[in-house]
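Cross-check.
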Amino acid sequence: MVDPVPRRWTRRSVAAGTMILAGGALLWARKGDHGGPHSAYFSQLSRALAIAGIAHPVLVIDRERLRANIAAVRATLAGTQLAVRVVAKSLPAIDLLNTVASGLQTHRFMVFNGPMLLETLNRRADADLLLGKPLAAKEVAQTLDAVLPLLAGRPGPKWLADTGERLDQYEALGKARGVRLPVVLEVDVGLHRGGFADPASIDAALSKMSGSKGLEFAGLMGYDPHVPKMPSPQHAYRSVLAAYGAAIDVVRERLGGDALARATLNTAGSPTYRLHVDDTLANEVAIGSAFVKPKDFDLDTLSHHVPAAFIATPVLKALDPFAIPGLEAAGPLLRFLDANTVRAFFIHGGHWLAEPESPPGLEYSRLYGRSSNQELLTGSRSIRLKPDDYVFLRPTQSEAVLLQFGDLVVYEEGEITERWPVFGVSA
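Predicted model, tokenized:
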């Protein structure tokens, strides 16, 4: 038997093979067309904005969806002992806060700085206010001087303390003004963002407050938004309950059951309030972002909520085909590899904490970069936007984004019905 002659690779065959492999790789890497028109919902919202004559970026609140989220909270907490404390930083407009508070029949609010505290107190004389973060002593002093004349014998805001040093500062402020500041102790229940981390430190704080002429114990706060993101949310939640329960035990042992019954026992947050329905430790949960459900809150624990806040902004320029400066020659190849980069849409404003929502298939360009003046969004030829049409983006969070557009625009039953002024910009 004659052995076959070994095949020899020629330069031509190597080149041909390389081209075949390269072509296959290009086809494999090619992205499909993700574009399409607005859904019926966003088409109707576009018409409402056009009829209202809106030609600049706005933050839209869908009141019907907002009501649905309020109803979801009400249904989830039905039959429990848990009251709701509405988080003002996540809903920074008094009409928005009032809508949520009215729907839940609560007058409890969580505020996060002096200006927010004062504005809420001026607009809500009945407000039960709790600080959501410990403030520097200087800001507390300035806020106290503005707040005390407004109280007229009513209970003052509850201040949040995270360390013994902070308690010393607050005690000095209270003594200097002849008042006892109600203080809630921040408990580290696993987030590890500060706070009293063990029963011994809580006991020391309560000892410091006992008999103080500048402080009075007002409660505990344990914030646990990390739980849904842990490898084992169930284990993380059990740890939260253990830490919070240990803190409550210290209060009961040192101050007695009556003090505990009067205390504000605050816990949870939008991502976790649903987990606390069987929790007999706390008496209130803090909820804010869940009422408008920004994108970062697309969590299993909030699957019963719907997005209720969108950025709407006009298209200023629509270009086809899109060419990247300095890469014009590569344009045909780039467009071949990704059909979603064929068209360019420059919008009014941009660089928000938000992701394109409608029409589908819009993307930020990594090659071109971001802009807060005329943001570039790319898309395929399946997206038929033209100048003056609207693009919709979904905020990834609410607290900072809702303050960036002036009055909130309220959408209801196919129409723009109201404008809600927002709080002054503050951190």
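The chain has two domains: 32-57+308-420, 63-291. The radius of gyration is 28 Å. Passed to J.P. for a second look.
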